[in-house]
Amino acid sequence: MGRFFGTDGIRGRAGEFPLQPEALTVIGATLSQVLAARTGQTPRLVIGGDTRESSPWIAAAVAQGIAQAGGTVSCAGIIPTPGIAYLTRAEGFDAGIVISASHNPFHDNGIKFFLASGEKTDDALETAIEAALENLSPAPAQTEAPGSAPASLWEDPTHALSYLEFLTQHIGADLDLSGWSIAVDCANGAAAPYANIMLQALGAKTFVTGAAANGRNINDGCGTIHIQHVAEVTRAAGAQLGIAFDGDADRCLFVDEQGEVVDGDAILYAMATDADARGELTPRCVVATVMSNLGLELALRERGIDLIRTPVGDRAVLAAMLEHGALLGGEQSGHIIFARQSLAGDGLLTALNVLRLLVERQCSLREAVRGLTRFPQTLVNVPVREKRPFETLPRVAATVREVEAQLAGRGRLLLRYSGTENLARVMLEAANGIDIGTLAAQVAAAIERDLGNGHPG
After folding, report:
1. Residues forming the annotated binding site for Mg(2+)?
2. Is residue 162 annotated as a catalytic residue, yes or no?
3. Can you give the pLDDT at residue 419?
């Protein structure tokens, strides 16, 4: 990660550097110049984003920079992040750009990039953009959107139709959801124009919430970060399951018919064991991050399936999948990658794959994830003033040794810094009978003493 790029592109408050018109134009121009140098021709790009009120003017500023540097841009309008990944690959664009801050509140925004392969941007491109931004002087923060967009973008509706056709006619081919009732929470985000159309086209009866975006209500009391909302709708409607998307719909979480949460770990378990039973999990491995529950690792191991762990972030997951030839990978947060279908995590695609498993096995979601026993897990966030290697912090290092001695191989302690916030994250999981809350609090207190900038949260 650099100064501006985190684990998933650039993200910050809209109107603050570098999410300001001049900087955004420089980002677009740099992207266009790098692609032109690589391909030797005029680069073609596609851009789209979520429903935040800042997304149109941010997209317009980036597009202006691309045009100034000789590139061309086609706009897909409101579209899930993986929709741009699909269009970039399927329609032969040199790169794709997504304007979104995923699960963050509306006042934040960000930029993600996809290469022609559908993979996220590489280090060389990020380095070039970082260098260009370093040469700029930040302007005063803007509290309101620019009075007029710095460039106009004509939205091509065929892009949205192309993505919907991919989902319903390719991923959902021959999938009959008649007889299924599904609660859907679109987080007032990018899934809103797609999820209900997709599911109803396949025959499902839907109960939809979070589909009335107004530019400011994205993720507000809904979506994956407020999963209890779709759980309540599922129970009230008597639906067979519920699906909640995040703001840019690159991930989803589920609830079963009783409103119990089914997260990314459980989906990886269900999909891996099903594919393995059909002899289609080759090689017999799954990729997940260091945040995935130890119970997933043990449950897969019992069935002869290896779990390969990576740092947090779907980019790290995909890199490991490509390295090992793995067909399935993802994160506990619900970001799942099915390599045969897409190199990007896609909440809508994940929903279809899970529903196909349930239809073909004629089972409920609760039955599909049976067999996964979780270790109790806790996560504590500690605000910090700087991010120094944990092993260089005397109190932290000593406390970690003490906690790991108490775990004695019956649990796992993980320390990491957030890629987008000034937070240290303490994750601890262990077998029943071990007080993980107390142990995690001890580590958090040590971090607070060495690096603290507030109180653990």
Report:
1. 102, 246, 248, 250
2. no
3. 73
